[in-house]
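Researcher: Please translate sequence to structure tokens.
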Amino acid sequence: MTLPTWSRSQAVAVISITVTFFSASSLAFSPTPTTTRLCSRHGFHRHEQATLVAAATNGGGHDDWQLEEEGNSDNKLHISEKPSTTATAAVGDDDGKKDEDIRTYFATCIPGLQETLASELIGLGADHVEPQGKSGVRFEGSPEVGLKSVLWCRTAHKIMELIAASSEPPSVDLDFDYAHDSDFSQGIRNREDLYQFTKSAVHTPTLLGDGGGGLLTLSVSTIYASKAPNKDLCHGHFTALTVKNALVDSVRDMRDGGDRPNVDTEDPDVPLVVVIKGRRVGGDDKEEWRDRKGRSRYEETSHEEAEYVADVDLYRCLHSGSLHRRGYRQANLDSGGWEDEEDDHGDRRPQSNGEAPIHRAAMKESLAAGLLLEAGWDKLVSAARGDGKGAVLVDPMTGSATMPTEAALIACDMAPGLSRISSWRGHDRNIHRFPPCTRWKDFSNTDVWAELLAKAGKRAKSGMKWANSLSENGDHSNVKILCNEMNPRAHSLARTSISNAGVRSIVSLSEGDCMGWDLGGGEDPTNDRNVVVGRTIFVCNPPWGLRLTEDIDESWVSLREFFRREAGGCESWVLSGNKQLTHILRMKKSRTVVLKTADEDLRWLQYHIFEKKKEIVHAE
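Model: Translation complete:
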């Protein structure tokens, strides 16, 4: 049988490699039957000498595939262009049942925000949501749930779909000429194992076929969820290269013309992520004995030497880049990594295209959103929508205004994905408007994504209108966000972020020391009070010595006096990475949220500040 020739030019590809380390527990979870969906649904069997045949449809030229047993033309498994409605109905297929097309996903986040991310995913309709370690959440859902998570999740960094897991025994037998047992659940020992696992576990036509006779582009990155098991798998570049080579060879084996998928480092159609988790096997039989002093000792009695192997999970990322980037700080959106450079003043260097610099102590947008959700800002806004009494947020040391900006986006019901789309400044295709998952043959289509975007746009428009409307008592708007910054450079960056995010109408920015920042009220009866007890949350990220080291003690003293004067009867939250500095506040914390970002151990501290008793003046 002769395979048809597929016309596509060959190109020399450079693979994009990113090596990241996560905690072992964060990406370790029990596999489910859905993890081998891409291969098992096509039913390969060991007793069949399988030959994949590319079958051109009548004039269509689509990526249809059939499995034909040699010597028996009657025994065929036909796989049509449209996935099976019982297991793989794509979002928007009228003849498919969405609730039967269940995928397994994994979302990453800043360590400590896993429970917050899990709550977000549950609200988006995800099922079997399980935090894994401190920096990730496993969940299941339809492709539409995956699209919603990309559009709406505020605390996630990556949303990935699991397509293969070596720790799961194969549900079908796959025949290939290789000495190793095809059950890779015993562990992957070297690059050859990894190569064969990738070729056998992934159904390449589904993964890389574009549904029109062509091939999708790809990239491969590596994440180490624990220490590398051995020297053969310890290098992220060569590990990713091995996976890429296995997929490329699979495609070339199926096509007479030798066509191969191209690698795209900027905007790949299929961004693949390889997760390596090392574990020890063998040599673990131990016998207890006691030394001369009666202390227990253990000795390995196994005749086999201990061996370190790897469990490998293969994911495809639903989006490009990291979801923590919103775009209103344009310097960290598609900037080619320049955000790590600093000028003589400690601010990020602006590029020639006019993008704004980023303050050296600016927090990630996802962290700011997570802190606000932990503080209950979303619940306060929801209550304001219900009773019309308004919601107020105050940040006395706002820096570049990341928390006030994120608070405004939450209050206006603005999806983070819309912010990324509107802030795109690239000259090519908007990678956020058309994320990779909308190009996959077996996942979704642009119509469904466009419908989700349209609904999100309507919600944002309605939310902005509500936030600017007067509250029930008519004294102030439904949402009022007040922030202050003393440093002129940071104040300028804050003003730029607020303006870029389009929330200037509800965020008020002041400049000066918070010690003298007056929120209204006091002795003057004509001075309206901005703080409403029971409807106001104070948040703050003061300097604590890692990046900003000048006048730290004075800053905390100013914060203490501000809280005592302005926050009486309200709830306050402070982010700190220095236990000693928090003692300056002389307040007892009510709750602690433990966080970790980079090498920094942080605490999000809640304080309930008692309202001052009014002095009673007795008439003489």
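Researcher: Any highlights?
Model: The two ends are 112 Å apart (CA to CA).
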